[in-house]
Design goal:
By secondary structure, the protein is an alpha/beta fold. About 30% of the residues lie in helices and about 25% in strands. The protein has helices at about 75-85, 90-105, 125-135, 160-170, 185-195, and strands spanning about 1-5, 10, 15-20, 25-30, 35-40, 45, 50-55, 110-120, 140-150, 175. The two termini are about 45 Å apart. The model has no long low-confidence stretch (mean pLDDT about 85).
């Protein structure tokens, strides 16, 4: 067991010590029990882990390499580059890139990540890879997977079926993309469609 002393604990200004055993916090307070190791934090700030509420782990780093760059820097060229790249995407490619991205996030104190995962892909490659990775890394980081119709819920043929499959596969929540809706009423129509789905899916 480790005992940390002289800590500046965010949200608890009256406590300055905490105990950690087997990677778990067991106590927070003052004058705590003795431990095998004592670490003096010398007034350093102790915070809860960060949350990244918006990431795209299925295509992180996919803009690297010849012919993949978003030259204009615009959102729509970025979407087009991704649309082209995902045709040759494999689960192993998603896995390798996602792990690299997660390592960068965790190294900065992030332990909760909500990642959008494109379901406008007939093979659901990204979702398959990330559902597996979520389980593998559950003791390191919490991943929440958003079934996300990158090319449009109404514009992409079969998007509704693919979103249902993604939820059955293990996606946690559904998302949408207003920029690709032809008008705001279509955005609400997206919600209307989802409201008709059986509770076993939602």
């Amino acid at each position: 067991m480790k005992k940390y002393i002289n800590a500046n604990i965010y949200g608890d200004p009256d406590s300055h010590e905490f105990l950690v055993k087997d990677g778990q916090f067991t106590a927070i307070g003052n004058d705590l029990d003795n431990a095998d190791e004592v670490i003096d934090l010398q007034g350093r700030l102790v915070l809860p882990p960060y949350v990244d509420p918006h990431l795209h782990l299925d295509y992180i780093f996919s803009g690297l390499g010849e012919g993949n760059a978003n030259v204009s820097g615009t959102l729509f060229e970025g979407i087009q580059r991704w649309s082209d790249n995902k045709k040759s995407l494999t689960e192993e490619m998603v896995r390798e890139r996602a792990i690299k991205g997660i390592q960068k996030e965790v190294s900065k104190g992030v332990q909760f990540i909500r990642t959008h995962v494109d379901i406008t892909d007939p093979n659901l490659t990204g979702m398959k890879a990330l559902v597996t990775l979520r389980e593998e890394l559950k003791d390191l980081v919490t991943l929440q997977l958003v079934a996300f119709p990158q090319e449009g819920f109404f514009r992409y043929e079969g998007a509704e079926r693919l979103m249902q499959e993604a939820l059955e596969m293990g996606a946690d929540v559904v998302g949408g993309f207003l920029t690709l809706k032809f008008r705001m009423s279509m955005a609400w129509s997206h919600c209307d469609v989802l409201s008709t789905w059986p509770s076993s899916i939602m």
